[in-house]
Every structure is written in C-alpha cells, then in structure tokens.
C-alpha cells in the first residue's frame, strides 16, 4: 500500500473571534478523525469497489440471472459484503465521533462562547431572528449528518453550540479540503464570478440555507459594496454565524431567520441568489417551491448559482451506490431523491429559461500551501470539495 | 428552563442524533464493540500524540534527547520491570479470554441463560 499524504492538522483551522478555545487533545482527536476519514476514502473505499467487482456482483448475477441494474440492486448486492460492512460501519463511527468531539469541545465552554457571541451581536440590526419561523418537518424528525439536535435545537436559550460544533468539526470530516475557514465553496463561486463575469456587480445578494455563513462570507468580501443577506431557519447557526462574520471584520452581511420557501422579499429584489450544499437538505415539497421563490426574488438580468454534490443521472451505478450511502448512513433523508432530479427541468418548471440554464464543475478554492486540492482520485464520495454548480441567468 | 449551569456537557456531547441508526453487521453486539473499540483507538492516538508533544517540548528545552529515547536500552532491572508490566497489561486486556478458559477448565456454565440461581445455604 502506498504512503498517503496525511491531511493537514486541525491546528491550521481558521481561528476567528468566535472559535472555541481548544487544547492539545482536541487537535489530536480531530487529526485522528481526519486521518481515519482519509484512510476510509483513499485506502478502504477502492477495496470496497474491488469486493463488489470480484465477489458481490458475480454472486448477485448468479442468484438473479442479471447484473445489478439500479443502484438499489448494487446496494442489495453489497449489504452482506464484509468489506462494505466494515467500511460503512467505520464511516458511520467517524461521523458520530466527530460530533462527540466537536460537542465536547464546545459544550464545556458554552457559557464563555455565548458571552462572546452576545457581545459581538449586541444591538446589531444585521441579526434578525424570528421565533415564528417553523422548522421544516424533515429537519425536525431527523438530525442530519448525525448532529445531535440538528442545526436548530437550543441546548439553552440563545444557544450557539450547533454553529460552533459545525465550525469546529467540518475540517475533520472533509480532511481540510474546504480550507482554513471551510469556505472553499464560497471562494470558488466568488472566483468563478470574477473570472467569468468580471462586469457582474450585484448590488444585493441572497444566500439560502447559510448555516454558519461560512460560504457567504467570501461573497460579502468579494463584493464589499453589496448588501448581502444570508437566511436560514436555525437560530443557533445564525447567532453564531453573525458573531463569526463580525469577528472576521465582515460587516456588509445580514443574517436573517427565514424559510427560503417564502421569504417576504419584494419581487426582483436580488441580483445574485446563491447556496452551497443546501438543496439536498431540502425536501420534495420545499425544493420546487423554493426555486419558484428564487425566480420571483431575482431581478431581470440577475444570476442564481448553487453548489451541490454531483447528480446521479448518467453516473456509473456503483458510484451512485457509494454516494447514496450518505442517504442511508449519514441521516440525509432527501439526498437520494434530490440527486436523481433533472435540475434543468426543475429550474424550467420554476420559470427559468432552459436556454439560460448552466451546469459546471468546480473544486474548492483553498490556500494550497497548507490544504490539499480535491481531485477525483480517492474522493470521499459525497463529502469532497468537488461540486456541481448549477443555476441560470434571468 | 435549562441554564448553562444545569447542563451536563459530557452527557450532551454524546447525545443521540434523531433518526434510525444503520446496522452494518449481522450482530448488533459487533456494532457496539466496534464503536467502543474505535473510540479507544482514537483516545490511544491522542495519548500517543500527547507523549510526542511532551518529548518535543522537553527536547526543545534541553531536558531530554529524543534520539536517546529511540536508543534507550533498559538495564536488567528495568527490563524485568517493563516485562512484568507488559504481562500484566496483556492479562488485563484479555481478561475475558482467561475467564472463558477457566470456565471450560472447571466445567462451569460460562454464559448465564437466566436470572442467577439462589446460593445454597452455608
């Protein structure tokens, strides 16, 4: 087995004014988890495929009289395979361990962290919480990514722990591929816009499902004269995200608690509407409604652009099966359905001109002196910083 | 109302996420044992890293040389103590195997199948 380059240490994680204080053992835990995830994706994952080709697929063919024809059939062929079982169980465990490590770090200092957030958020007109915003059903019944309490649960009133935990641990989940501030997606979108459309100067930008705002901060920085609004349904993320952005000196960014299905903004209010890894956390009902809302809010000549994991249509069956493991094993209830959609058709149904639809591939933009660049090789399917960007001009 | 002072950070850190937990192996006990073993593996790595940090800090202060540690040859007394420790360590880790073999040797029923029978009077 060849020697793998270890992922960058968690010590390089971006420490802004809201970041939890950590000690040696916190770093060591996240480093272990990042390495374990690296092992699972680059060393063990190819062997899972090998087990499929060498024994699971032939056994399925023998029993069924035909090779697996859907990813569901690949899954059936694989569930009993011992290498798949070991890989799947280890992958689930690293996710649970990452949650415990992050929550352990954050909850033991929750009081001081909340005090920091309160100070940074005090009287800010740019943090708009609305307790009347209802939690979407899908989010209230399943804690996605195995995050206990999801994005929205408050351990104590005015809680920020979900945001701080997300911020602390995502580096380990992705092996640092999202960069120091986990903003490789937002950086990629900002860079793509500057390179491809240097004359596009949006005055108002809306980011959907922003969570802690890590991917919208680069947009606010790239367009310092723009009014940037980030919305999410989860108050703990917004409190944390707002304080985080302030501590990073980003002031043209408002965080508002709102459901993207129905925001209340006037027609044509925004020039740019973005999202990153948002749609797969949506639902069958919410996604078409939200796309209609995006179209309504977008100004003529405006752009909507979204980063997502790759879609399934046309993809190799085995790869579909591996990517779909997150739906089964990482609490992603809408993942499979969403990735089966024909996005051009979805956008067309929401009123966008199919001629103005686009789809392209982007990789995370990170500080390459420290961070690895995401490649197709040894990709941790479903978690790598390699995305499909889709959208449309209006 | 829950307050900062009333929460238990340790218990909360390990809280269960809503949603069904997938089972990968035929036997749920294997699932549980693997889960515990993985955390021990992680905490072992944490300790190893801490030891490494300690050595490096001490070396930077001129208090020890890591080369000396790499080339450490215990004298006979130390060698015997270290050997003893290793034997005890292995015995502690493999306690359940020892007890299983003892049960076979003494003809004892190894695995309980119900509530414990009352002890016979003295």
Task: Set out the fold topology.
The complex is a heterodimer of chains A (394) and B (122).
Chain A (H helix, E strand, L loop, with lengths): L23 H41 L6 H8 L3 H26 L2 H12 L5 E2 L8 H5 L19 H13 L10 H13 L7 E5 L8 H6 L4 E6 L2 H13 L5 E5 L12 E7 L9 H12 E11 L8 H13 L5 H6 L2 H7 L7 E7 L22 E8 L1
Helix pairs in contact in A: 1-2, 1-3, 1-6, 2-11, 3-6, 4-9, 6-9
Chain B lengths: L8 H5 L14 H33 L5 H5 L5 H18 L1 H12 L16
Report on this model:
The complex is a heterodimer of chains A (394) and B (122). With 394 residues, chain A is α/β, with parallel strands linked by helices. Chain A has 13 helices and eight strands. The radius of gyration of chain A is 21 Å and the shape is globular. Chain A starts with 23 loop residues before the first helix and ends with a strand. The longest helix of chain B has 33 residues. Chain B is built from five helices and no strands. The interface between A and B is large, with 44 and 31 residues.
